Amino acid sequence: MHEQANGFEGRSLTVVNDLSVDEQIYLYEKTRELKEAMAKGEDPRRFTIGDPDLGVYLIFLEDSTRTKESFRNAATFHRVKVNDFNVGSSSFNKMESISDTIKMLFGYSGRSIFVIRSRLEGTCRWLEDALGGYAARIGKPAPSFINAGDGKHEHPTQEFLDEFSFLEQQRWNRESIHIALVGDLAHGRTVHSKVDGLRVFAEVHVDLVAPKELALPAHYEHRMVQNGFRVRSFPSIEAYLSQKEVAPIWYFTRLQLERMGEEVLEKAPLLRRAVTFGREFLSLLPEGTRFYHPLPRHREFPEIPSFLDGLPLNAWDLQSINGYYTRIVEIGLLAGKLGADFRGERRVPPAYPDDFVEEVAVTETKPHDYKVGIKPVENGIVIDHIGRGDDIAAIWDHIDKIRQIMKLNYRSSHGVYHSSSNEIYKGIISLPDILSFDETHLKMLAAIAPGCTLNMVKNSRVAKKYRLHMPTRIYNIEAISCKNENCISYPGHFEQVRQEFYRSENGKFVCRFCERPHNFGEIWDL
Ligand code: ASP
Asked: How far is the CA of 178 from the centre of ligand 1 (A)?
């Protein structure tokens, strides 16, 4: 029998932020405890799950050495059922959807943890939604999903072992860290996970060392700054070492050739030179510098050449072994074996307040006398102030979008107007047949035309007036989709994912699955 729910049981690790900072620190402390106990040869049974009805499924749709083998060894340590799913000969080749495959495997064990690596970003988040609903319907505990790397997006469990390794190096001092991220920062998911993982340190200085073709995408850099990190950028190792403030921790990533577009791929040899460590640089490093690398290294063109392997600089070999210990603890937490002694702040899932409809005072009870074209409605709805202040073409486009998306195929009229007192234009749609909108339609309208007003006209008077604001979350609308071709929700992958975006603090629309930010106009398919 497994232990009582411990606050971690049944949860998923799809991104680093699925654990609060306190929970991440707890993971590191538990790992330290486990590693020390094992080093002393103590009986590790207090850490082991030992439940043969718990299935750990390894589903690797992309190649892997360390992540897969450390998870396999960690699961074996726990004495649970370990299933290495053979992707190559599976029904994925017959176009089966991943949610159907997982549903089937989920039926084979009382409890399940799926460790999934996929080229498609957001796969685990989607499966968490899909299987969570299915589990509730059939009355089984929901499975946990561990993202073992999804495209260019994240690799949370690599992040946890990286941070654990940095903490060991700093003797558990979390006051500050100064780290250089070197290599393919554009495509390297282990670097993207650093945006959140480094928050366990109170003060964070990050130096980004990469030529512009391999630079960290702007939205990740923006989030680092938002997290309070000091961020500096350098185009090459040479440029970085020509200034004085050099980090004692260097984190390299290989050139992710398999994820590069043709244009960048052509320049690979040149780009590689900018981020490969040369003998001539050795004397410029601060004393005690350590090099880390999630591995693998390219055996012909390694960013960390092999002449460095025997030097104290080499921290990457021991770093990779830490993957075994951190993953034992991660499985132990999600299975409910570990975590009962956690004290601290739990992760609070983001909230999306539904406050997009604001009732405003009706200042005049007579409907407007719209002079050009629109006959005043006696009973119905007038949508006013569409795209107020935009140019005329943009307002017409807005009106078209509203009519198409909301399928307003009724007796009605519309137009672009300006008030007599100024030259500010706005769109109006008048709907004499419609007496109310339901919540979904209101949300749709707010998303398409934020700032518009809704006048409910009764007996030729405005009875109620509402102003609509951009919702914090946009979903349940047919005409939206994520434009990242590598996202699990991208319609071309036919995984039937319900599209969902949330609004970020800088006004972007972030896909719930791959977390790619979109401009508002981009999310629409029309
Ligand atoms: N092993 C790491 C990953 O899966 C790093 C790499 O492949 O370069 O992301």
From this structure: 22
Does residue 191 sit in the same domain as residue 140?
no
For ligand 1, is residue 117 a contact (CB within 6 Å)?
Answer: no
Ligand 1 atom having least distance to the Cα of 254:
8
189, 298, 303, best to mutate for ligand 1 pocket (most atoms within 8 Å of CB): 189
Residue 351 lies in a domain: no
In angstroms, what CA-CA distances link 411 with 28, 211, 295, 377, 518? 64, 58, 64, 11, 35
0.85 surpassed by pTM: yes
Is the CB–ligand 1 distance for residue 149 below 6 Å? yes
Whether 130 maps to a domain, the answer reads yes
Of all atoms in ligand 1, which is nearest to the CA of residue 117?
A: 4
Residues 230 and 301 occupy one common structural domain: yes
186 Cα: distance to centroid of ligand 1 (angstroms): 13
Q: What pLDDT digit, counting tens, does each position of 261-294 carry?
A: 888 889 999 999 999 999 999 999 999 999 999 9
Q: How many domains does the chain have?
A: 3
Nearest CA to ligand 1 atom 4: 149
- Please, are residues 453 and 466 in contact by the beta-carbon 8 Å criterion? yes
Please determine, for residue 5, whether its predicted confidence score (pLDDT) is greater than 70: no
Q: Relative to the CA of 184, which ligand 1 atom is closest?
A: 8
CA distance linking residue 245 with residue 230, whole number of Å:
13
Q: Are residues 181 and 293 in the same domain?
A: yes
Kindly list the distances between the CA atom of residue 472 and the CA atoms of 110, 352, 502, in Å, as whole numbers in the listed order. Answer: 37, 6, 6
In the listed set 254, 286, 314, which residue is the last one of a domain according to the structure?
A: 314
Confidence check: pLDDT of 131 > 50: yes
Domain match, 181 and 120 both: no
Between vectors from CA 356 to CA 353 and to CA 358, what angle results, nearest 5°? Answer: 120
Read off the tokens for 168: 């060991």
Q: Is residue 498 part of a domain?
A: no
Ligand 1 atom closest to residue 256's alpha carbon, by position in its atom list: 8
Residue 117 has pLDDT above 90, yes or no: yes
Q: Is 22 exposed, middle or buried (0-12, 13-18, 19+ CB in 10 A)?
A: middle
Q: Are residues 115 and 224 in the same domain?
A: no
Distance from the CA of 254 to the center of ligand 1, in angstroms? Answer: 8
Same domain for 430 and 286: no
Is pLDDT of 2 > 60?
A: no
The residue range of the domain holding 224 is 156-314
Amino acid in the structure at residue 491: P
**For ligand 1, is residue 189 a contact (CB within 6 Å)?**
yes
